[in-house]
Amino acid sequence: MGGEAKQLPRIDFSGVVPSKPGTGTWPAVRAQVMDALTTFGCFDAHYPALAPELRAELFDGAVRPLFALPADAKRRNDYGADKPFHGYLGDIPGFDGYESLAIVEGTEPGPVRDFAGLMWPDGGDHTGLFCDTVHGAARRIFELEEAVRRMVMEGLGVAKYHDALSASTWHLLRMSEYKAPNAVEKTVRYMTHQDTNLLSVVCQHEVEGLEMQARDGEWVLVKPSPTSLVVIVGNALRAWTNDRLHAPFHRITVAGNVTRYSAILFSVPHDKVEVPDELVDDEHPLRFRPHDHNDFVCFCVSEEGGRHEDKLMAYCGVHDRNE
Which residue numbers delimit the Fe2OG dioxygenase domain (predicted)? Predict the structure, then answer.
């Protein structure tokens, strides 16, 4: 992809109504989505449904004040020892300057209210605004994620699985802070990785830092804009589609003296990931064995998993193609 991989594929969703699949520009956008996700594994969505005003309120009125809380308050974002990556992340070796909080099922009002109650036990007028803003933005992002997931099912000719996959999927809303290094040189705040989940939708504020790796190894810096969201394929969807979609490596690097913030919605399979029979044929032999998603995530963060660049292939790959 050499010289053409200077920016992500950009797809205009302004003519797509997520609640009315197949109408408007849906078919044309679906073709662009499939091309982008099979070749690059991600794209930059022009998505004015998440209004710039709501995006600004999300970061300035909700996310920044959240990270200004004392560390003890943020550590209350805990879902138990068996779910260490569902809540607060901070002070992690190798992730200097990175801090993150998350809401399980953050697209629903109840979990957002519960989260706000943990962060601000005494309540206050600002908590209602926090809940309305975070839930409103998360719902808009979710509508895009679900539309893209449906387009993938349609594009592969397996739309009949959409409802079942949706029913077996949950969503994690993660808000992150990447502290400014106060230096001209770029500093890595989140190391190179592939996402483990189905789809990730990244909402950036004003400070750039997300870098996607093209198949030829070139790094592409994603420029934030007030109307764009970045959609990224994770290894769970790569596995489910029998390797038809590409799960790209990406990282976060920052420079300068302005702290970076992001809000990311992850769609995550509840249990087993298994390739549908329709996606296995002579041209596309089975690439991945059925596997429990949580077990795969545990493998990725284990010492053994750390030895492998392609963790999905190492964990459940079918090695029968003379590789």
Answer: 169-269
